[in-house]
């Protein structure tokens, strides 16, 4: 009865927040198929349960529903009118996490070579016996007097890597002359009189070098992280500078375009006024000519009548007056100029266009050379010494389009510095 009470006192109810405790043998009750998410086909991570009772990884189910217009169970296709609120199944998560840990540990466990039935986990590996031993067989091994001097190490899978293939003895020494691990018999044959030290001593020295190398690597990482920050900062500055320069260029070109449009409007207005003046002049001359034609027609009629008259005295008296042309206007030198200075305007505009093109080309060339120079400086800063000759060509087409292209690039030679080696490159850019 007392024992029963003692056992009862030892029992207690597990609280909701307390993790489940699994025994070593409880894994036999777990089935991997029961712990697999049907979406990712892997053991559950943060499992959630749908209203229809199926389990999935929270991230898998969330992504599945985010990509779909309707909330369906991926397993039974049951449709949910309202998207369910997903809560992690803590019990199932603990079971899945335990299964993962056991699965991962089983992958790296070294099993006992002496066990005849179910092989247990090995505690040590004996280099002299060439076997890995569990706790029970290790005690039996150590109790044998002839095994007292055997070399034991932490359990390893490939024991043959620790055994000399020539003498079948444990590799206990390191030959510094040949930079290889050797056994005791090797020092009496192939490695006789060589500089050999215990592998533990060589390992300690190598670890010291590894620490120094690791420190150097960490410093290199920090240097490169710092360089990344510098490059990002430079890129941001370059972006801001480019945006400002673009805005300034757009403002200048907009003002230039407006000035050209204004000049064009003024020129067209002058040409229209000149055309109207020419039309007014033409209308006045035509009116004057029409008036003279009317006078001349009347005179022609009078001359026709006079040529048939029989009054000789009257003909002689008015002959001089009728035949006189002094009161008529000479129209030979009078004309309307049909050319409204078109050639002059075209010549002036062509010269203006040529001058503008030259100025724009020079500005673009200077800007491109400045850009190339900046890029070369950056290349030289990060990649060593590089010389490149770039020939740029820019022009403005008759349609007013700006055309820029790299006409040719000279030979590219450079020396890029890398750890423990030098890379030299030659090439041509197109």
Automatic annotation (TrEMBL):
Domain U-box: 30-106
Pfam families (alphabetical): TRIM_CC, zf-B_box, zf-RING_UBOX
Keyword Zinc part of the UniProt annotation: yes
InterPro entries: E3_ubiq-ligase_TRIM/RNF, TRIM8/14/16/25/29/45/65_CC, Ubox_domain, Znf-RING_euk, Znf_B-box, Znf_RING, Znf_RING/FYVE/PHD, Znf_RING_CS
Ranges annotated as spanning the membrane: none
Keywords, sorted A to Z: Coiled coil, Metal-binding, Zinc, Zinc-finger
GO molecular function: ubiquitin-protein transferase activity; zinc ion binding
Domain B box-type stretches: 159-199
Coiled-coil ranges (or none): 225-306
Gene3D superfamilies, per the entry: 4.10.830.40, Classic Zinc Finger, Zinc/RING finger domain, C3HC4 (zinc finger)
An individual GO BP term: protein ubiquitination
Domain RING-type, residue spans: 37-77
Sequence segments annotated as region (Disordered): 1-25
Family annotation (SMART domains): BBOX, RING, Ubox
Keyword Zinc: yes
Protein name: E3 ubiquitin/ISG15 ligase TRIM25-like
Species the sequence originates in: Tachysurus vachellii
